[in-house]
Amino acid sequence: MNVTNNHGSIDSLAISPLNKGLGAFQQPVTAAEIKALNWNLLREDLSLPTAVLYEERMNHNLQWMQQFVSEYGVKLAPHGKTTMAPKLFARQLAGGAWGITLATAHQTKVAYQHGVRRVIMANQLVGKQNMAIIADLLADQSFEFCCLVDSADGVDQLGAFFQARKQQLHVLLELGPDGGRTGIRNPQQQAAVLEALARWPDNIVLAGVEVYEGVLKEEADIRGFLQHAVACTKQLAKDGRFAARTGGAAARPVILTGAGSAWYDVVAEEFAKTEIGLPLDVVLRPGCYLTHDVGIYRAAQAQIQTRNPIARKMRTELQPALQLWAYVQSIPEANKAIIALGKRDAAFDAGLPLPAAHYRPGNPAPDTTPAHWQLTGMMDQHAYLQIKEDDDIKVGDMIGFDISHPCLTFDKWRQIAVVNPQHQVIDVIQTFF
Amino acid sequence: MNVTNNHGSIDSLAISPLNKGLGAFQQPVTAAEIKALNWNLLREDLSLPTAVLYEERMNHNLQWMQQFVSEYGVKLAPHGKTTMAPKLFARQLAGGAWGITLATAHQTKVAYQHGVRRVIMANQLVGKQNMAIIADLLADQSFEFCCLVDSADGVDQLGAFFQARKQQLHVLLELGPDGGRTGIRNPQQQAAVLEALARWPDNIVLAGVEVYEGVLKEEADIRGFLQHAVACTKQLAKDGRFAARTGGAAARPVILTGAGSAWYDVVAEEFAKTEIGLPLDVVLRPGCYLTHDVGIYRAAQAQIQTRNPIARKMRTELQPALQLWAYVQSIPEANKAIIALGKRDAAFDAGLPLPAAHYRPGNPAPDTTPAHWQLTGMMDQHAYLQIKEDDDIKVGDMIGFDISHPCLTFDKWRQIAVVNPQHQVIDVIQTFF
Lengths: 433, 433
Fold this sequence. Notes:
- Chains A, B: This is Low-specificity D-threonine aldolase.
- Chains A, B: Keywords: Lyase.
- Chains A, B: One of its GO terms (molecular function) is lyase activity.
- Chains A, B: InterPro entries: Ala_racemase_N, D-amino_acid_metab_enzyme, D-ser_dehydrat-like_dom, D-ser_dehydrat-like_sf, PLP-binding_barrel.
- Chains A, B: It comes from Collimonas arenae.
- 2 copies of one chain form a homodimer.
- By secondary structure, chain A is α/β, with parallel strands linked by helices.
- Chain A folds into 2 domains: 55-314, Alanine racemase (TIM Barrel); 322-402, D-serine dehydratase-like domain (Lyase, Ornithine Decarboxylase, Chain A, domain 1), CATH 2.40.37.
- The first copy, chain A, has helices at residues 31-37, 55-72, 86-94, 105-113, 128-138, 152-164, 187-198, 219-238, 243-246, 264-271, 296-307, 309-314, 407-410, and strands spanning 4-5, 8-9, 14-15, 29-30, 50-54, 75-76, 100-102, 118-124, 144-149, 169-175, 204-211, 254-258, 280-284, 322-333, 336-339, 354-359, 367-368, 374-378, 383-386, 398-402, 415-419, 425-430.
- In chain A, strands 5, 14, 15, 16, 17, 18, 19, 20, 21 and 22 form a 10-stranded mixed sheet that branches. An 8-stranded parallel sheet of chain A has the order 6-13-12-11-10-9-8-7.
- In chain A, helix 4 packs parallel to helix 5 (128-138) and helix 8 runs parallel beside helix 10.
- Chain A is elongated.
- The two termini of chain A are 23 Å apart.
- The interface between A and B is large, with 76 and 77 residues.
């Protein structure tokens, strides 16, 4: 893969000295140059609060998921909205991912500009400027792209736009459960969308079927919904609805895709053996596995490790690879420390960050934190840490926090340092939110 | 004020075509160049979702607050953490603000690099790299800076660092109420901090007293706490504790400062007439007034308009100046539309965004939205809009949302378009989070 943008390779992208969470430098530097600066988190070379990615853990997770999908013979298009870090996209693709999933036209443009050439935009493409962004990228014949449709209005708007541009857009029929988010709910809606597609035969190509099962909470409901998606895909194949996708010189396999980060094992089980009488790519789209967490996704993964035979057989688990580090800035009451970390720095919508490591500058190594150290609240720039009266904690100590919900943590940082187990900064990834 | 950074003036900062929420351009452009591109929100020239600032409303709010503090004869140091937009800092300073308040060393560096030369860092300065950032800025003698202290440990760490650097740091004694956030709670703690300050007479200068009253909820408690701060400041003056600040060739007034965006009127009333027998600057630090909102700060401002005689006399009110715009992407159920707007785009910790305007591309102007259109939930990239079965709403319609909590909305955007009442883009501000 050609990991470049207008400015050269990802490693030569300039990182601004005005970004938070980094060490001292005066002029923009490249990620390649940062390694040579030899920063170490525990030597206080970084301005805290900061976010760090643990290289070994991230690599472990990357290989874990690739092995998992390989066991099922399905393909992986990790959801890139989680990290929005093209350097991580490149590692996922180099590690065997089939493509990258994204949520918006803007995100797709960012990925394309950094070398990604196969994208599922797991969302409807709406609006003149967003359609123009995608149309411009599709001028590159090597760029494989599809997005979702779930309404006749949406199809007609796409049809009119891409007809005027004399271009062809590939779309997936999105199915959704009652009470869910987007997606076709019933046969009448589906018929209306198929009728609309028939109005734009030269410009809108039906490429497959998409679901997001994560809006459901019960395994039985999810399996039923996934089986409905399989049946629907078979029927569409039987009815010849994928002819434009699979015929002709530019023929491509039909796509059947689902899976967020909580139920990808069940989607693999339900989708893997699907036969529709046409070439078919089954594609899973988890995004959070790369960094994992100790909150909602640890809980979800524990379920997967319990219920899924392949995951059990692998005998290793995903590891939390993203941490936040911040200083104790005040201990104004005997049982309360104030940490210089806030909603500006960490996700807080699915549980607050969890104290994991305690380091006093000058000590040989961090300690684990006592179980009773817990955040009880966060403001924009502060967190409340519950402690006990005689705990060994001082202003100026550093606390490392594990997180819950990587997506809303990544988007607080324009770059994140990658560290080795000795907390040496060995790389920097940039984000594009 | 010299509004420049290493790259030239704020208007010549390059805006990346990879940022979300803008119109079409291929190479980095300057804010000055963007005006010439003649984008209009309602002509769908921007990629939605996007955030826009209404120029007239922002100007109105800026003047409103400046008039308010002038009536009390106090000074304004707007909290810059809200917007982290140096171009808005420059407008606040040009409009009469005394300085800018910030929360971290990183934020202070960003402000300094864009020309701000007087900063209250309303926080403890902790950690080697953070101290180094401030020490580097203090090499510029024209830079006036002070931060907070509330512990002897903190003072000693600052003392050791700035003594080694042979520099002088000005600090404010932070007072905090029991059950609150940072700040000295009792006379024993205060004595310990003052003793610590006495250990570093050449390097740490006591410059005044600071409070953040916003952790309290009742007016009577707040007035009591503020009166305590006034009494404390008087006693410190009487005890000669400000001698290093007010004496010598580089003498400056003592600072007494408080006020978030909810109780600044009460702080003005309690602090304005303070006499300590020394030159004194009373400084208020609200941050959210510039854009205001229709949530927590509208509610807080309504209280101010009711209880404060100056606010009543002014006869105008703050206006919400920040909106988010997004497309209807799906109407999968009769009473539910899915909007392409999510937690990645808007604050959600103090109420969800509120639908305000509905625009169908091609129509002459937006309509106000029916009162029953309400967001019922938000995911990372989607929002659920409650509608009724026969409402006139279509996929591809644009919805403008007012917001609650500007701070956590600004930090979702690397730049925000400034528009006139015709929704023409007349400027762009960049943020540095």
